[in-house]
Amino acid sequence: MADNPMLKFVGKGQAYPDKRDADARADDFLEISRSFILDKAEEQASRCSQCGVPYCSTHCPLHNHIPDWLRLTAEGRLREAYELSNLTSTMPEICGRICPQDRLCEGNCVIEFSGHGAVTIGSVEKFITDTAWKEGWVEPLVAGKPTGQSIGVIGAGPAGLTTAEYLRAAGHEVHVYDRHDRAGGLLTYGIPGFKLEKDIVMRRVQRLKDGGIVFHENFEVGRDATLEALREKHDAILIATGVYKPRDIRAPGVGAPGVVKALDYLTASNKAGFGDDVPEHADGTLLATGKNVVVIGGGDTAMDCVRTAIRQGAKSVKCLYRRDRENMPGSQREVANAEEEGVEFVWLTAPIAFEGTEHVTGVKVTRMRLGAPDASGRRAPEPDPGSEHTLEADLVIKALGYDPEELPKLFGADDLSVTRWGTLRVDHKTMMTSVDGVFAAGDIVRGASLVVWAIRDGRDVTEHMHRYLKAKAKAAGERVAA
User: Fold this and answer.
1) Coil, strand or helix at 98
2) Per the database record, which ranges form the FAD/NAD(P)-binding domain (predicted)?
3) Are 449 and 443 in contact (CB under 8 A)?
4) Is CATH 3.50.50.60 the classification given to domain 249-398?
5) Does pTM top 0.85 for this prediction?
6) Within this chain, domains 22-135 and 249-398 share the same CATH topology
7) β pairing state of 402-403 and 292-296
8) pLDDT tens digits, residue range 388-423?
């Protein structure tokens, strides 16, 4: 045991990379904490108990080999740790930054249960791959032996990019179609830089471009080509568009100027971060500077909005959530970060109207109380009669989550079947939609979810698409031979 570099959780306490001071970080969009230094990464990795049944891995959607690459890190074998981490994930440094580890791997760490504090898995994962990029260990994407087959991927988010990478490595010609001017989906335009700096995403995208994947940006299926036209061009199609239709509030005055959608607000902020000209910032419609901002919602998108508003110099920032702190869906770490930066949380409060005619001036709200549990198991909020009051607001941001767009209508594909929730209906044995050769993965199938699940779905659908393409090539060969 004296030479064992692991099981140091008794003598070494849990530690995360130091966060920058709240006042300092509220002035910019840089990540709030940097990577570990080498010694600290090795120390924290050495706390792993190397359990026989690693709950961290089983609760990771990708089933990453976490105990193994923690041990390699503790032993100073960083390149091997990176290579092992890279086996199961196409974006380990991104997952290390934005995964809710407290609900997944770290939340199920055995030493967390024993009261010693979880291994800081996400921070070590981030350190490993950041080091790999710095040291030149991240190898170029090399296409396999050409198959003569072509694949079209609709959507350049994590699911689409993952499938594109794996299918290109298998030797297929791969084209990625995306509505935005930059690839990455919500990684690029939905998540603020203080959680995920954009050069981290762009270097991943550039690696795919350098590997021969063809990107068609500013391309909207339905406007620039129908789904059927893409089917004629490619041997197989993957739909990985994600879900972008914002959920709305039914309340008087919701259409007043100054009541905006979260994704519009975050996209404008991220575009400004790239140095783009953003008219909505120039005219102030999507800019929080000097305003009393109210964000409605309790998920991670709401946290992104309140923390962005702080950095834009808002006069005040309030987050309204109809349940209490313990029942909110967003990361508790994000709530703590927001509170440190000056966000005020107004728990058990829901909007009932928006005041103002030419522009929003306030949000009329009611206090809520928690009743019996609903279908999700959480206690359902109920209005508390007589508690109505108004909160001053110059900018109201609706951050209530996302639903699928009407893809059959958008894509001009009436034969594309959807579920009653609007997600694409697939055969879960093959991940194929109701249209032959058209597959689907990510949020457009499972509904709004985590980036790590999108990567998992992109990885899984690759196998099904590859199998389909091999069968298609074999059938074509047999027809020629006949």
Assistant:
1) helix
2) 151-458
3) yes
4) yes
5) yes
6) no
7) unpaired
8) 999 999 999 999 999 999 999 999 999 999 999 999
Q: Is the dihedral of CA 428, 431, 434, 440 positive or negative?
A: positive
Q: What are phi and psi of 388, to 5 degrees?
A: -65, 140
Binning the chain into helix, strand and coil, the percentages to the nearest 5 are 40, 15, 45
The residue whose two tokens read 């800081």 is 120
Which amino acid is located at 409 in the chain? K
Tokens representing 55 are: 């709950």
In whole angstroms, give the CA distance from residue 253 to residue 356: 8
Tens of pLDDT along 320-370? 999 999 888 888 889 999 999 999 999 999 999 999 989 999 999 999 999
Helix locations, 89-193, DSSP H:
92-98, 110-113, 121-135, 158-169, 186-189
Closest C-alpha among 16, 233, 197 to residue 118: 16
Displacement of CA 265 from its chain's centroid (Å): 17
Distance CA 311, CA 293 (A): 12
Distance of CA 472 to the CA centre of its chain: 34
- pLDDT at site 1: 45
- Secondary structure (DSSP) of 217-268: TT--BTTTB-HHHHHHH-SEEEE-----EE----STTTTSTTEEEHHHHHHH
Backbone angles phi, psi at 317, to 5 degrees: -135, 120
Q: 143-179 pLDDT, tens per residue?
A: 999 999 999 999 999 999 999 999 999 999 999 999 9
The tokens describing 421, both together, are 């929730």
Superfamily of domain 150-244+404-481: FAD/NAD(P)-binding domain (3.50.50.60)
Separation of alpha carbons 438 and 255, rounded Å: 38
Backbone angles phi, psi at 175, to 5 degrees: -120, 130
The CATH fold of domain 22-135: Fumarate Reductase Iron-sulfur Protein; Chain B, domain 2 (1.10.1060)
Tracing tokens 């879960």 back to the chain, one arrives at: 428
| pLDDT classification of 482: cutoffs 50, 70, 90 | low
Q: What is the DSSP letter of 183?
A: S
Return the half-sphere exposure (C-beta side, CA atoms, 13 A cut-off) of residue 67.
18
Give the residue extent of every domain in the chain. 22-135, 150-244+404-481, 249-398
User: Alpha-carbon Rg of the chain, whole angstroms?
Assistant: 24
State pLDDT tens for residues 49-59.
999 889 999 99
CA nearest neighbour of 286 among 271, 269, 302: 269
Identity of the residue numbered 478: E
Give the DSSP per-residue string, 279-307.
HHHHSSTT--TT-EEEEE--SHHHHHHHH
Cα 354 versus chain centre, distance: 30
